[in-house]
Amino acid sequence: MEKNFVILGDICYAKEFGKLECSGGSYLVCENGKVKGVFKELPGQYRSLKLYDYSGKLVCPGMSDIHLHAPQYAYRGLGMDLELLDWLDTITFPQESKYADAEYAKKAYDVFVEDLKHSATSRAVVFATIHKEATEYLMEAFDREGMAGYIGKVNMDRNSPVFYCETTEGSAKTTLEWLDDVTGRYENVHPIITPRFVPSCTDDLMKELGRIASERALPVQSHLSENLSEIDWVHELAPDSKGYADAYDRFGLFGSSGKTVMAHCIHMREDEIELMKKRGVFVAHSPQSNENLRSGIAPMRKLLDHGVKCGLASDVAGGSTINMFKAITDCIQVSKLRWRLVDDTERALTFPEAFYLATVGGGEFFGKVGSFEEGYEFDALVIDDSSARTILELDIQQRLERIMYLGHAGSIISKWVAGRKLF
């Protein structure tokens, strides 16, 4: 597979938080699947490489969606009048239970992966279901289509309907069998330990998952402080814990033994924020989902000022689209509402800051991902913004901001992940 080439175009990327680097009519070099740099004049040693001429087109890094539910893609946009816990019982659990049927799962996941392939997302952190066979097929489909990410078989042994629940022993056993099947099988697709959230996992299961994560050096994903009713429920279910974050931390599922990403993190106490920083836990900010399920507005400026690692997420189907352009602009817009309605000391996020979160911020969960600095994994999008007609003379950053506010994800005409051209 050819992983040495050059792209010519109008290049825009982030090197540091809050500032974009833009270079018109410049060359972006990929060597062995890694970025070699951005050059105004192409150095001689690269002139024999294949050249993709996208003159006049925007070129930016691929984006990382660090929290979404693959089985929920089929019913995105449904049940949006419900709050989280009612939505889970009414829509989510019945729909996810269908993935026990392998043929149903294959059809649904093929649609999901094909659409994700043609989106702005190059890497993703994904919840599957409790079903081993379906989860393995999702990983195979990701790998086949050239996508990269972490995919988790979900664990849940309580507070779930009888048709969609595991036993504690069965959940741990199936997880180990799944890990034995998939570990090391794919180049860019990897397993991640996935307790759904504290209400659906007993202490015994959480303890076992923490042991597995530690022994196998695996990352962890789950949900944290999304909804006020959920938080009250956690306090009832885990009375021995110091709080929601501690309900994970005491079992080694909060960054103490490896990378951890927690979705939402809206209603956070100061001590929990400090623990996140100490453990290096990532926040997956899901602005559209937080709106749809009436959960609240995450304190992103506060989290960032405290040094917490943050990225953006679609959280399909809490969020109704996998369009990361929308996640960027939603992130900015809800931060304005938080500044106006909740805490006027928390400055609203800017476009360069939100773009950073979608690229470098979330990309850090995968390593050196999300920038065009030398040594980063080569994830790139080529965007044709000519359909967004205007008589204005715009610079590169303005063009990029405009196409994202207009939501034109269909303007992506080429995409690379880890140096592999997807289309």
Q: Characterize the largest beta sheet: strand count, sense, and whether it forms a barrel.
A: 7 strands, mixed
CA-to-CA gap between the ends?
A: 14 Å
Shape: globular
Overall pLDDT, averaged?
Answer: 97
N-to-C SSE series?
Answer: EEEEEHHEHEEHEEHEHHEHEHHEHHEHEE
Helical residue percent? Answer: 25-40%
Q: How many helices does DSSP assign?
A: 13
Low-confidence stretches: none
Structural class by helix and strand composition: alpha/beta
What is the gyration radius calculated from CA atoms? Answer: 21 Å
Number of strands: 17
| β-sheet strand percentage | 15-25%
Order of strands across the widest beta sheet?
3-2-1-4-15-16-17
Task: Please sum up the structure shown.
Helix content is 35%, strand content 23%. The chain is an alpha/beta fold.
What does this structure look like?
This protein is an alpha/beta fold and 423 residues long. The strands form 4 sheets. Strands 3-2-1-4-15-16-17 form a 7-stranded mixed β-sheet. A 4-stranded parallel β-sheet has the order 5-6-7-9. Strand 12, helix 8 and strand 13 form a beta-alpha-beta unit. Helix 2 runs parallel beside helix 3. The mean pLDDT is 97.
